[in-house]
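Limitations

Structures in this collection are predictions, not experimental determinations, and the ligand pose is part of the prediction. Treat each record accordingly. The example that follows, with magnesium ion as the small molecule, is included so readers can see exactly what is and is not provided: the inputs are given verbatim, and the output is the predicted complex.
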Amino acid sequence: MAVTYRSAAGDVPAVRGISLEVAEGEALGLAGESGSGKSTLAMTLLRLLPKSARVTGEILLDGEDVLRMNWGRLRAVRWASASVVFQGAQHALNPVRRVGEQIAEPLLVHGIAAPAEARTRVAGLLEQVGLPAWRARSYPHELSGGQRQRVMIAMALACSPRLIIADEPTTALDVMIQAQVLTLIRSLIADRGIGLIMISHDLSVLAATCDRLAVMYAGRVVETGPAREVFTGARHPYGRALAEAFPTVGDPSSRMAPRGLGGDPPDPMRLPGGCSFHPRCPVALPSCAWREVELWPADGAAVDPADHVTRSTETRHTAACVHVLPEPEEESA
Ligand code: ADP
Ligand code: MG
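Predicted complex:
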């Protein structure tokens, strides 16, 4: 799928053709610097984008295309089939309502539980995210940042969705709480066979909690594969830079700018030609200025051209870099 924002200054191609798949119980990590299109992708999955966004392609949830659902169907699908955990729960929670009521709301709205049963369910959900049941009576300001994020997770789990999308769910939290919350999300989805898309600019965090990783740059996926393989053996120079960018504790800026990688991510309205990473790439060839390479198997195994066509359904390691391509064949006479 692809997403373009229309603005007074012109079109902003925020997501430029991406194909990803998530299976039941699987955690897919989506990494990339700020501005690479991660949140646009996340919001598109449940059609939460502003009207200025034009979306093309398909988003299949259990085979049904979210982009072609009518509003009634879409409302039913939100929360009940797929739900989102956003960054900074402080803003997503209503400050003047008790958190228990807020967790119960999707259950009541979707007719999944009557009020008395919803109260029991809320107590159970709070327990699962590591909060005592009496916390249902608390207001958001009475909770710490980590506790509010746990409340958001309880809300996302409330209707037993098939897919959870977590967009930087822990970025606002300190490092210790971050690890706890991520481990919690991971264990809850694996136990219940829920699919998870976890978004972060921090590849090391994703590598520790996800099965597979996809690295985004300028609205495209430039590398994907099994989490450990991508993290320890990235084949795209951008994937490598992200993998080496271990954050320095206490220095927020080190989490945003991958160490050793100069320059800024490109403005989607002024993308460089060819491979959009080439101006920052330490191993760029002259041809990278005009040539954009598709994702290509990068695990060193022999490449069958037929494999390449079906790559979106496979779990092998792929990278969109000229250095991963097989040697060009000599033209035969
Ligand atoms: P990320 O989550 O990876 O930081 P985003 O998806 O938020 O990236 O943004 C991707 C690009 O789309 C950025 O260049 C951003 O400025 C642009 N963008 C996001 N929202 C809008 C919008 N409503 N209108 C125009 N451009 C937008
Ligand atoms: Mg974002």
